[in-house]
Amino acid sequence: MEFGLSEQQILLQDSVHRYLTEQVPLDRVRRIASGDEQDSGVWAELTELGIPALLIPEPLGGVGLGLLDAVVVAEVLGRHVAPCPFSTTAVMAALVLLDAGMEDELAAIATGELRIGIAFNEAIGARADAGIKTDGDTLSGKCLFALDGDADSYLVATGDRSIYLVSADTSGVTRNNLTTVDKTRSTCELLFENAQAGKVSGDPHVFERALDAGRLMQAADTLGAAQAMLDQAVDYSLQREQFNRVIGSFQAVKHLCADMAANLEPCRSLVWYAGHAMDAVPEEASLLACHAKAHLAEVGQAVAKTATEVHGGMGFTDLLGLHYWFKRIGANRQLLGSPERVREQAARVQGLI
Question: Of 35, 127, 176, 235, which sits 20 to 30 A from 347 (CA to CA)?
């Protein structure tokens, strides 16, 4: 069987890559990461390309594509460390709202008018000092590491995997932005004190599908980021000279680059097939999403470390900016479940534990 991207998916990939290359260079990423510019400008420009509307049906103003198409976009965004809420608003939130039939909110996402963050952590793993309690249509408690600190609203999951939609400016909601290693995307702590919320879903399967999709987007993002680090390492090795030779001519450096490429290339088919399975082979989707998230976390970390080593001391400087990709990969490793937690979930899916 030959499995690859369609002509339309390649065109989508190329158009997003071309836009990011021209409009979101590393200098702009630096400004956003330092707080001198907001990521809302990038999101507005991506809206013109139809990226927030990717999974939304055409009657609601969307593009009506599938999760493999979203994987293609996420990979390109990771390659450019693009600062935007793609995995939260355009993928996870869109899937939940589609299952709930919330057409007004979906239409607002498609036009870029609504950003929805994801606060699923308290349903993924309970913490001693956090947790969400419900009383009718109100929420109380604390959720750590909610994704997208600048969202207009949040989808909040409780311990029983029910999902509630709450506006960020609702009375009783306090949002505290958190400092993490990844400055290209924001996370926050949400505090609720009898905050009004609307119940979106009480079906655990809706939560699980959105979580699987989010993990898959992070795997694709890591794939793109790791590929960028590999490419930069190879380019640098063909320019940097020592002993009147480019360092890429030394066998040790060749081996480092070859190992990175050999480990990373199989990940692409894993991530692509996991995206395909989300729509076409649903019985395999959760397992594949877990495998993709856990495996890319390990491979991405190894590539990030090795690519930095190839650059030598320059790899740690802000002049090259390699650390933006390094930290993005590190954040993806932990958010929505560490490799250990995700592997445990994969074992449960298979009935091994």
Answer: 127
